[in-house]
TrEMBL record:
Pfam families: Trypsin (PF00089). PANTHER family: PEPTIDASE S1 DOMAIN-CONTAINING PROTEIN, PTHR24260. GO terms for biological process: proteolysis. This is Peptidase S1 domain-containing protein. One of its GO terms (molecular function) is serine-type endopeptidase activity. Signal peptide: none annotated. Residues 1-199 form the Peptidase S1 domain.
Length: 201
């Protein structure tokens, strides 16, 4: 299903929420598509297939401030203990205002976190903070990234960022304690739908 893009602007390379810089680029969307199986029900503590895609009117120029995250394959899964990273402009504490500059968090992938949140690991990627930073209100939709490298023919390592999740929700919102559970919609689980939409539009 297609949704209206009226009033939507996407700020690329934008770092400080209340100021502008010469590094930012404002993109306009012409398509906004929500996953057809997206659901939130009272019987389920987490949204399922919590993904949407936006097609831009024109390509975005890449720069030192604007880059690309690669998509995983359907078979790609993150093992327990793998390190992943997220960042966002959400609230730092309950009831506070959104932060001006993005807060970053390092998470360890944890199937136990999915069990604690009572959600299906096939549809979600779960992680726990080992430094007290977690996703919060206002961070929904941000990515969960890992950095992976492969050897090239000249034996150099080609490092790339891959997006494995999209922030969906967390337990004990804005908790600053270690081992806080965070849930992300799984990108690899819905990668076939993502490619279908890309090919169609």
């Amino acid at each position: 299903r297609l949704y209206s893009t009226s009033g939507i602007s996407l700020y690329m390379g934008h770092y400080n929420r209340v100021s502008t810089s010469q590094n930012e680029y404002i993109a306009r969307p012409n398509l906004y598509i929500i996953h057809p199986e997206f659901r939130i029900t009272r019987s389920k503590p987490a949204p399922v297939h919590d993904l949407a895609l936006i097609k831009l009117e024109k390509p975005v120029p890449l720069s030192q401030s604007i880059g690309i995250a690669c998509l995983p394959n359907r078979a790609d899964k993150l093992a327990d203990g793998a390190l992943a990273f997220t960042a966002g402009w959400g609230h730092a504490t309950p009831g506070s205002s959104a932060v001006n500059e993005p807060r970053k968090a390092r998470l360890k992938i944890s199937s136990k976190a999915c069990r604690q949140l009572m959600i299906d690991r096939r549809l979600h990627v779960c992680g726990r903070s080992d430094r007290g930073n977690n996703i919060c209100s206002g961070d929904s939709g941000t990515g969960l990234w890992i950095r992976a490298g492969s050897k090239s023919n000249d034996h150099q390592t080609d490092w790339r960022w891959y997006i494995f999740g999209v922030a969906s929700f967390g337990l004990d919102e804005c908790s600053q304690r270690v081992n806080h559970d965070n849930a992300f919609a799984s990108v690899s689980t819905d990668i076939d739908w993502i490619h279908d939409v890309i090919n169609k539009y």
